[in-house]
Amino acid sequence: MLVFVGASLLLTMSHDQTTSIEVGSLQYWLFIVPALLLPLLDVKAIIATLRGPARLLLVMLLTAGAWHLLRGDARAVAQLILLVFVLAWVSTPDARIEVDDLVALYVALILVGMGVTAFTDFSPYSLVPGRTDEDFGAGRVSFFPNIAYTGILSLALLLVLTKDRATARAHPIVLLVALYFLVFSFVRTATIGFVLYVAMRFLLRRVRRPSEARMFWLALGVGLGATVLIGSSAALIEALQDLPFVPELLLQGKSDLSAEDIFKQMYRPWLWFQHLDLFVTSPWLMGLGSFDFFDLKEFEVFEIGQSVSTGSESLPTRLLAVYGLAGALFTLYLFTRLRALARAGDHWACACFPAIFLLLMNWGGVFHPTEGMFVILLLMIVRGSDGYVSHGRVPLKRARTSGAARHEQPERR
Question: For the ranges 99-108, 309-318, 333-342, 357-366, which has the lowest average pLDDT?
């Protein structure tokens, strides 16, 4: 799993955010092949997981796969198989990443990024504020050519390193470095996600011995509530845009924008409605299968610096548009894992859920099953604290893969 994550993130260094990978190219296959082959090393556990705790994914695969296979949409079926296959792999009982290994990978990626910045003109970003190409935001920093990966990976490191006090104390410098890149990358969804995580940790500590139901509904409510708030926040941001840091943090450095301009720049709320419209107008509510978003929707030119992409920025709503009702089982599966983690008393995983759900709704592209970020982030909410362990230590409370509220003795090595 670490090889998969490392290879994917290193490959990401080879393309920037303004270009897409061409289907059939060498880069394309370098992403695809590890996602197809490495999980085969644990295929028995994947099958057992699909027949057990991840049966919702199996139902999604069988229903949506059969429907689109009958329609002759092989591309939609292939994409679905890959999504279910890799997510089931991440959900297997032995799926885990050593914290120290993830920290080492993060440091290595920064060093590679420093080399790319120092010796090539490939990346428009700098590692210090004020030296980035003005077209990309002079005050922003990034060690990836794609700034979203810097902000989101740094958020992931902060979540993992603050899992408990021992982990934070073991890596104080890397924790501060990750905080630096999160703040100054100005990837607003990642920043908001970190705020939600901190708020969740505070709330769960303030409540003495929170019940399973309270942890579950609090995490779910914060995640869904933040999404609804973002979808209706254009007017609020318009009123606050004159405050310090608001333009850089929330408006990509721009100011004096109207509420309509801000809504266009945000783009995601508009996209959610387009996906829902495609879902409700699809045959038998079973989705449209593979489609070109540009061919189905008429776009007005966004003159506020927002480039419209392929319509894949929101994974849960895109799955509805592509696979219909069956696509909703992906999100429902994540909710069942949250429920199981709440039953296991995994406060950390419950606190992580709102931040990751927000990323799913706003940066769905990093959750492609060939992406290392897919594993890093979803491991937190399908395996919980068991997904990230330190050398020689495992959590005392293990999140039950079955979701059953039973106690389990700690492992020994």
Answer: 309-318
Closest C-alpha to 157, from 185, 124, 182: 182
Here the tokens at position 42 are 């644990």
Q: Residue 10 phi/psi, 5° resolution?
A: -65, -40
Model-level pTM? Answer: 0.87
pLDDT at res. 310: 66
| Burial letters 42-59, b for 16+ CB under 10 A, else e | beebbebbbeebbebbbe
- The pLDDT value given to residue 1: 93
* Token pair recorded at residue 211: 């019940």
Q: Coil, strand or helix: which one is 398?
A: coil
Q: Distance between CA 30 and CA 14 in Å, rounded?
A: 11
Q: Which of 149, 128, 203, 118 is nearest to 9 (CA)?
A: 149
- Per-residue pLDDT at 240 exceeds 80: no
Q: Three-state SS for 395?
A: coil
DSSP state of 19: -
Residue 249's Cα: distance from chain center in Å?
Answer: 19
How many other CB atoms sit within 10 Å of the CB of residue 311? 21
Structure-token pair, residue 328: 């909703």
Strand partners, 279: none
CA angle 252, 253, 257 (to 5 degrees): 85
The length of the chain is 413
User: What is the chain's alpha carbon radius of gyration, rounded to the nearest angstrom?
Assistant: 21
The angle at the Cα of 191, spanning 189 to 197, to the nearest 5 degrees, equals 100
